[in-house]
Amino acid sequence: MTTKLLFCSLGVLLSLSVGAQSLQVTPPVVQLGEVPLKSKNRVSLTLVNTLDTPLVVRDIRTDCTCTKPSWPKAPLMPGDTLRVTVTFMPTDRGAFYKTLRFVTTPQTAQPLQAVLRGKVY
């Protein structure tokens, strides 16, 4: 029983680590510093498919409508990179922490995320 549990746990851990390695984002955290209210701020992220099969980024979910990502919808072949452009237009003053969540096909075991941080004055 203990051996079965150990092998099942090991299998789950291996599948999580493989899923976590299927897509990488650079940089994972973008420090925008201080930005003016209602300004248009653009940043670029690079995604890399580290799987041996094609991957499609179906959606990039954000925390609010002030953060708008755009990216090519074509399949990302193994080893290829994809450029994501994110436009952030703040509507409120203060510190911000905006999360981008990547939805892919096939799904990754660990959802990939990137973060925009800074302060609006």
Q: What is the tally of helical segments?
A: 1
| Largest sheet descriptor | 4 strands, antiparallel
Number of strands: 8
Measured on Cα atoms, how large is the radius of gyration?
17 Å
Name of the CATH superfamily? Immunoglobulins
Pfam families: DUF1573
Keywords: Signal
InterPro entries: DUF1573 (IPR011467), Ig-like_fold (IPR013783)
Organism: Candidatus Rikenella faecigallinarum
Structure description:
There is one protein chain. With 121 residues, the protein is of the alpha+beta class. It has a single domain (2-120), classed as Immunoglobulins (Immunoglobulin-like). It is built from one helix and eight strands; from the N terminus they run H-E-E-E-E-E-E-E-E. It has one helix spanning 2-20, and strands spanning 23-26, 29-35, 41-49, 56-62, 67-70, 81-88, 94-105, 112-120. The chain has a four-stranded antiparallel β-sheet, with no helix packed on it. A four-stranded mixed β-sheet has the order 2-8-7-4, with no helix packed on it. It is elongated, with a radius of gyration of 17 Å. The N and C termini lie far apart (60 Å). InterPro entries: DUF1573, Ig-like_fold.
